[in-house]
Amino acid sequence: MFTGLIADLGSVRSIDRDADGATLEISTRLAGELVEGDSVAVNGVCLTATAVHEGGFCAQAMAETLRRSSLERLQAGSPVNLELALRADGRLGGHIVQGHVDGTGTIEDVREEGFARIVSIDAPHELTNYLVKKGSVAVDGVSLTVSEVHDGGFSVSLIPETLRRTNLGEMGIGDRVNLEVDILAKHVERLLKAEARI
Question: Which domains does the chain have, with CATH numbers?
């Protein structure tokens, strides 16, 4: 489990693709806190560290993960949001994030408003059903508050700190992002559907 609070903005050192998926080598200052087998959220996708070395780690993404996320577009030099799994004694400063991407969205508009940057994201209808104004959403693994929900998507407001510490500061119109909706909303929906069948 994760919180959506990014611990480091790492970078892809190399990526080796084949028919089975991809092996990523990622540079990060978090390497000293990792051991083989640890979970790491990479742009919001929970991956397992298969090797750890000074200054970085390796992880594999199977073909299904690449199809369902924006990881397929990564290349050497791409910045990636990184978060280590939440410790039992840690603070839940963002919201509950599983690292199980529900789908992807595309940035449709970016505008400045005071010191904030308003980013509008096109998203599939099956995901926007779970979004509410002032609710939580993970965008490329970053825990954000939904500022508006509209036909075909939603908007978030990014403060300068978020722009500096994550890859969202480098994103522009047309870029694809990983989306994970609030797990609590999905559980509530399932319970309501089950009750309706009774």
Answer: 8-84 (2.40.30.20), 103-192 (2.40.30.20)
Query: If we measure between CA atoms, which residue out of 193, 90, 98, 86 comes closest to residue 136?
Result: 98
pLDDT for 21-42, tens place per residue? 999 999 999 999 999 999 999 9
Neighbouring C-alpha atoms within 13 Å toward the C-beta of 99? 20
Return the residue matching tokens 């970016």.
110
State the SS3 of 47-58.
EEEEEEECCEEE
* Non-local CB neighbours of 193 within 8 Å, separated by 6+ positions: none
Kindly report the pTM of this predicted structure: 0.93
The distance from CA 194 to its chain's CA centroid, rounded to whole angstroms, is 29
- Give per-residue pLDDT as tens, 139-159: 999 999 999 999 899 999 999
* DSSP letters spanning 38-92: -EEEETTEEEEEEEEETTEEEEEEEHHHHHHSGGGG--TT-EEEEEEPPPTTS--
* Cα–Cα distance, 48 to 60 (Å, whole number): 7
Asked if 2 and 82 count as a contact pair (C-beta separation under 8 A), the reply is no
